[in-house]
């Protein structure tokens, strides 16, 4: 068996040697450079290594963060913190609106109170008589109060209508006699307020007209009575004078 193997090796060796000699004697093309292989990158060209892909660092077991597998182009929805921030913003806006409304209401109320106070003070100041009139309020008001008390004393045993009307009438009459300028201002102010109620203003006009007619009638009758008394006094004086002349 070993002899066979040695014989085969000896037969193959001369054949391989003949083949190599033939290949050397046959002419063939020799190239200075190796043919360009597009699949391989030449070693002399600038070679740009591909950039490494970004890799997310492995989470530390002590950091407490959870790695996410979201892609960069994927939109992230609102988190509970974002929703809580929106609700807090709405609550703050609601509280701000309520505070603004309360402040406006307080300012409006204060403005109305100041306007009312200003109107009251101006009204009271307008009732006072001017300095050039020479009218003084203090003694005049005392006289009016005394006249009203006198009317209440006089009518204390009368009916309720007289007890209510006589002191008022005496006080108003004393006011027109003692402080006419002030009473005129009060009458003008009362008339301005009465004009806001047409029924009251009309009743006031009718009452004043009736008083004016009664005053004119009383004045005319007083004039007639005075004239009648003067005539009677003149006649009586003439009669007395005639008697005196006849006695002489």
Automatic annotation (TrEMBL):
Pfam family, one: ApoO
Localization per record: Mitochondrion inner membrane
Polar residues compositional bias, start-end: 62-76
Coiled-coil intervals: none
Entry keyword annotation includes DNA-binding: no
Keywords: Membrane, Mitochondrion, Mitochondrion inner membrane, Signal, Transmembrane, Transmembrane helix
Signal peptide: 1-32
Biological processes annotated in GO: cristae formation
Chain intervals with Pro residues compositional bias: 51-60
Assembly: Component of the mitochondrial contact site and cristae organizing system (MICOS) complex.
Function: Component of the MICOS complex, a large protein complex of the mitochondrial inner membrane that plays crucial roles in the maintenance of crista junctions, inner membrane architecture, and formation of contact sites to the outer membrane.
Protein name (database record): MICOS complex subunit
